[in-house]
Amino acid sequence: MTAEPAIAVTGLVKRFGERTVVDQVSIEVARGEIVGFLGPNGSGKTTTIRMMCGLLTPDEGEGRVLGHDILHDQRAIKREVGYMTQRFSFYEDLTIEENLQFVAGVFDLPREAVASTLVDLGLTSRKGQLAGSLSGGWKQRLALAACIMHRPKLLMLDEPTAGVDPKARREFWDEIHQRAAEGLTVLVSTHYMDEAERCHRINYISYGKLITQGTVAEVVRDAGLTTMVLEGPRIAEAQRMLRSMHGVEQVAPYGNSLHVIGRDGPAVRKAAQTAAEATQSKLLEAETSLEDVFIQLMGASQDNMQ
Ligand SMILES: Nc1ncnc2c1ncn2[C@@H]1O[C@H](COP(=O)(O)OP(=O)(O)OP(=O)(O)O)[C@@H](O)[C@H]1O
């Protein structure tokens, strides 16, 4: 028998007034999986997360989170989920330890929970430091400590690393992977491509609609894009030429090279070759990056809105 998924929701809809901000979103997440949630600002990620956490009731749709019905067992879901909001906050004039003691009180946890969480997240040596004086990376570690202290089975992280430096982000992700290996399920929203690539699977949402889902490799493959790369001293000239050429949907400079992208492979190759010859640039075919795919998806969904 296979274990019930940590998240299995179908057809979620949420309207605020006349606006449908989440439109028929279905997501399944297996236990122990790390799943990314991506999409432009305002596309409905936070609203979807809140419906799955038991904080918002969907207008339509149904499903189960950790085996509990999202429409009727919201209290049970809230007890078993750790939710790290986008702008997590704590008492800046309390120490790390005092902040965690406060959270322990809210969840009615024994005092030992604070000590073990401090050890668990490597916060013991800083436990007496005021939360307000911590750097971004340590603040985020404290926020993670606060949302896993009650030992949730599922973590919902809403842009947990926004504004945190790359080293702290790497450490944060190492921590998340370690916990997933121990059985914790994680759903994480992010705007960072490197973070998306650290997820087992990703979901991409735009204007409230789920546009694509799968492993990074599947999402890249399903986009069906061809990427050609031009290199040389005259790529600015090549860029101007390529913008109006048939089949070219994206032209993006990366340092000394130029990425030329489109869905019509033969047309993209032909355009890139013409521009490469005209500007004596070196030409090669490259793998399409996840970022290129997302830019394409954003453009496509904007077109759908017109
Ligand atoms: N309580 C609310 N009342 C009215 N509109 C809301 C409410 N909550 C969210 N919205 C709107 O719903 C849309 C989706 O917002 P949401 O925060 O879910 O997007 P998001 O994908 O998480 O965005 P971001 O990446 O910027 O965090 C936005 O246009 C937002 O303004």
Automatic annotation (TrEMBL):
GO terms for molecular function: ATP binding. Keywords: ATP-binding, Nucleotide-binding. Gene3D superfamilies: P-loop containing nucleotide triphosphate hydrolases. It comes from the Bacteria. CDD domains: ABC_DR_subfamily_A. Signal peptide: none annotated. It holds the Pfam family ABC_tran. Residues 7-232 form the ABC transporter domain. This is ABC transporter ATP-binding protein.
